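Our consortium's second objective concerns turning raw sequence data into structural hypotheses that experimental partners can test. To show how far this objective has progressed, the report includes one record in full. It was chosen at random from the queue rather than selected for favorable results. The single chain below, 301 residues long, was entered without modification.
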Amino acid sequence: MNTPLSTRLLALAVAVAILSWASAYPVVRIALRDMPPVPLAAVRYALAALVALAWLVARRTPPPALRDVPLLVACAGIGISLYNILFNMGEVTVPAGAASLLIASAPLMTALIAMPVLGERLTGWGWLGSLFSFAGVGLIVGGQAGGMAFGAGAMLVLGAALCSAIYIILLRQLLRRYDGLTCMAYILIIGAVLLLPWLRQACAVLRHAPWSCVGAVAELGVFPAAIGYGAWTFVIREMGAARGSALLYTLPPVTMVLAFMLTGEVPGLRTLVGGLIVMAGVLVINTWGHPARRVGAPIKN
């Protein structure tokens, strides 16, 4: 049984993780006022990599096994570098709240990819939830500038959600051999290295950028990218993956509140309705969509 102290620590870790990740959406919008999308990704993860490297050195963690380097590079390239390039480019035109709702479709994409790749199956409820989520995504995308046109902001954010889904599939294999924090530190560092070609441009922009941009970049590099992942790893270790992942449903509403406070963004009715449909569909998929997760079946953490 948890002691009062451990309960408070767990509650604090949950709050830090959710607030850190939710803040990324509106803060990226603030940084993009003065920083181009790809250089923003480069400088953000350069800062995160420094935090990760300091943590690895402090723990005297050995480098990863050579056999795991290709998979680590794939995880970093897709889940860090490409994800953030697409996401940042998408958020140039897509409001923070709508972006968070589109990214919320990543679990749906993960479930669909896992079927041919990992041999997982969906129940009838799972397919129904998938249809719901796709309908919600269509509502949100149709309300954004450019709609479903190739290269439009909403489609770029959906591309980022697809990167997140692929990343989760790849990460499962690494977590069989490394603990979560160590694995994340390796991935952050490799992702930053892959973005190095744009770091020089980012530094040049920062030299003349206003303090709002500098502060936004610092917040993005330290909190969502480094501290947020560390806090989330603690939450998953204490609560288990199934219970902990349910907390991610709070991300879109928290993001919308922060977006309103920081940038004055107010989501439209179409975005809100589409978001509710997406979240309902994902909830159905994660609760009843897999044979092993039916009522009465044990949940594997």
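The partners drew two points from this record. The mean pLDDT is 83. The CA atoms of residues 58 and 91 lie 36 Å apart. Both points have been shared with the crystallography group to help prioritize constructs.
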